[in-house]
Structures are given as structure tokens and as C-alpha cells.
Design brief:
Blueprint lengths: L1 H13 L13 E2 L8 E4 L4 E8 L4 E9 L3
Antiparallel strand pairs: 1-2, 2-3, 3-4
């Protein structure tokens, strides 16, 4: 939960592009069925899946889910 709060703080204060400067989040574009979405690592197990609306800089969190290996 603490890492998610940090994630939200970074996005709110600096925008989602700033996440790429923090290697621990391993922020990346998704492919396949999730094309157009992004993923940030909150822990080894949990990811936050989100999209960015460019015109208004709205971040919509789709889900926080355990990563499937």
C-alpha cells in the first residue's frame, strides 16, 4: 500500500512520464490484449495497470493485480 501511495504521489505531482525515472517501478507499455495500457511494479507480486489520457493528463487505474508467472 505504501508503494502505491508513492506511485500516486509521483503521478499527481510530476505526471506519469516521471515514473520511468524510478527503475523500481519498471514502468512499461503493455502488448497484446492490453495494448494501450501501462504497468508499474509495486512489488514482485503486484502491478498497477493504467492508461493515460493525453489531452487532459488523466490517469485511469484499471486494476491492481497480482502478477501471473
Amino acid at each position: 500500500m505504501k508503494k502505491y501511495e508513492l506511485w500516486k504521489d509521483i503521478v499527481f505531482r510530476h505526471g506519469p512520464d516521471k515514473l520511468r525515472e524510478f527503475p523500481g517501478f519498471h514502468d512499461e507499455k503493455l502488448r497484446g490484449e492490453r495494448l494501450g495500457e501501462r504497468s508499474s511494479r509495486l512489488s514482485l507480486q503486484y502491478r498497477v495497470i493504467y492508461t493515460v489520457e493525453k489531452e487532459v493528463v488523466t490517469v485511469r487505474v484499471i486494476e491492481i493485480t497480482p502478477h501471473e508467472y
